[in-house]
Amino acid sequence: MLLPRPRRFDVYIAVGGLLGGLLLVGIGLGTRPADDPITLFDGPWPILVPLAVMACCELLRRAAPRTALLTGSVAICADVVTQGNLATVLMFTDIVYAAVLYGPLASARRIQWITGLLTVAATLVPFAVWRKPEALLIGVVVGVVAYGPAATGWIVRNHRDAAEAARLRAEQTALLAEMDRAQAVTSERSRMARELHDMVANHLSAIAIHSTAALSLDDPKTSRDALTVIRENSVEGLAEMRRLIGILRDSSGDTEPVAAPTLDGLDALVEGARANGLDAHLDADPGTVPTPVELAAYRIVQESLTNALKHAGPGRVTVSLARRDGSLTVTVTSPYGDRDGPRAPGSGAGLVGMRERVALLGGTFEAGPEDSPDGKVWAVRAALPVTDTVEGDPA
Length: 395
Hints:
Elements: H1 8-26, H2 45-58, H3 65-80, H4 86-102, H5 105-130, H6 136-216, H7 220-248, H8 266-275, E1 279-285, H9 291-311, E2 316-324, E3 327-335, H10 349-360, E4 364-372, E5 375-385
Parallel strand pairs: 1-2
Antiparallel strand pairs: 2-3, 3-5, 4-5
């Protein structure tokens, strides 16, 4: 199996350690004298073998830390039976440090335990055998060469892992913030789409129907009446658009936000539908309801009247609001069938908007054709809870 390619920095460490060791050999500076009892091979040449092996291990300090540590441990033991080289010892401490820092977590824990036990054994065993205080220095040397680098590597690894965890948490927080922002933007776009549709569609539908009538009928009086209705709806639609722009610009302080419509405005809403040609009638006894429910009910009636203006056949349009079983029930019925006059196009967004408003309040909504004593009708029914209402603006 081919070993991984060493990092450039590791190459620099290996070359530096090797050159430093050769310099120490060249000037004859070893860690022990030639007549030391544990020196089995004296002279400069035996020192070069563990030095060269340790330099090769430095090349693998990050690419293969466990292999480097096992090979380096053999090399440091070989260095002990020579006159020794300080560069070999220093490179071994770096290999221990790198094995803990870059190796697997389980290996890092084992290295700490092993070096700790070796330090304790190197302290107690020589002292127990020789009974001399100087024997304790062996444990100090082993601790400095083995356990010290391992402990340092463990501390640095913990700090590195903590920094990486903090970075990941920051990235996750940023990702969640971006998701929240995107969700808020989507929600705001949906709200503004509903508001724009509800506030302007009624007037534009009336303009489309009456302008078609004015163009198709060769009657001056009918054309004048149609143009009057067109002008009124265009002026009111423009005012509604300005109010919507005012809401959008509210944060910059350019305009004051317009007050949300209330159920007190249903009479005017139905009266406007009559002016546009609907035979609309209102039967409302809602009582006092929360503001979100009030706004949702108003918009449902407004959109239902707009749909009746565009699609309903001739006949009576009934708007009913009543409190039943802890809910405000909104019912709008209109004749189901083809219109005698011109028809305004529809996109289907109105039903989607009404359904979304009701869902935000936890209510129920249904719309479709029904049979009634007066014939087939299109009925819109919504039940809006007036207790435990969702907080906030349902728009």
